[in-house]
Amino acid sequence: MNRQKIRNAMTLLMFALFPLIYYYFSPYLIIMGAAEGIVVGSLIVFVSLFVFSLFLGRAFCGWVCPAGATQELCARVRNKNFKNGKRNWIKYAIWVPWIAIIIVMFLHAGAIRAVDPLYQTYYGISITGLESVIIFLAIAGLIAGIALVAGKRAACHTICWMAPFMIIGRKIRNAVNLPALQLEADSSKCVNCMACTRDCAMSLDVNEMVQKQDLENTECILCGNCVDTCPKGAIKYSFGKK
């Protein structure tokens, strides 16, 4: 449980910093920069998330992401499970054309001309005036609204433009069997108390996965709730090959 206290403290910190750093997670700034042939801070972050995911999966989502932190606070107000299924594909319907637009913009600009991590920020700070405050409130309001209506971390499942980078990275890791952070289950220790499923931040049927002894799931964010809530230690973190 000490691990979850640390994770909660980290997510609260990221939530507090969200107004100052949200440009580094902006999909629109990437398009703006691409139109000028500039690699901006958010593009650097997203490429880093892909590399990160090869070894740590979607742990960024569970431990560091400020949008995820916003939704976890919403879950304290309305702890409703999200219905996993076809709606998980919405993010790909957003992501694919967005990537296509970025590529077209870079090609139209004559490829990459510069790298500017602080593009459109004020010495690295996202809030540069009233307009940026309004944009932030709109983004945070959308993320929170979706979570409150559709369930826990619903925006992660549906509209997150960062998740596909990490999901693709994780699939590559699985295909080539790189050593990475993962969850392991011992079904012989499971007493079917359902605590792992009940406390899953992504509303996954963890108990079913434990019975199959396969906890690999594209929507898993490796937050460790299931690890720390299991009274019998049937789930644990490990680092290695599948």
Which structural class do you get from the secondary structure elements? mainly alpha
Report the strand count: 4
Our count of domains comes out at: 2
User: Helical segment tally?
Assistant: 12
Low-confidence stretches: none
The biggest sheet, with number of strands, parallel, antiparallel or mixed sense and barrel status, is: 2 strands, parallel
Radius of gyration: 19 Å
**Helicity level:** 55-70%
User: What is the topology, as strand order, of the major beta sheet?
Assistant: 1-2
Content of β-strand: 5-15%
Shape: globular
Mean pLDDT: 96
Give the H and E element order.
Answer: HHEHHHHEHHHEHHHE
Distance N terminus to C terminus?
26 Å
How would you explain this protein's 3D organization?
- The structure is a single chain.
- The chain is mostly helical.
- The chain has two domains: 2-171, no CATH class; 178-240, Alpha-Beta Plaits (2-Layer Sandwich), CATH 3.30.70.
- It is 57% helix and 7% strand.
- The strands form two sheets. The chain has a two-stranded parallel ribbon.
- The longest helix has 21 residues, at 130-150.
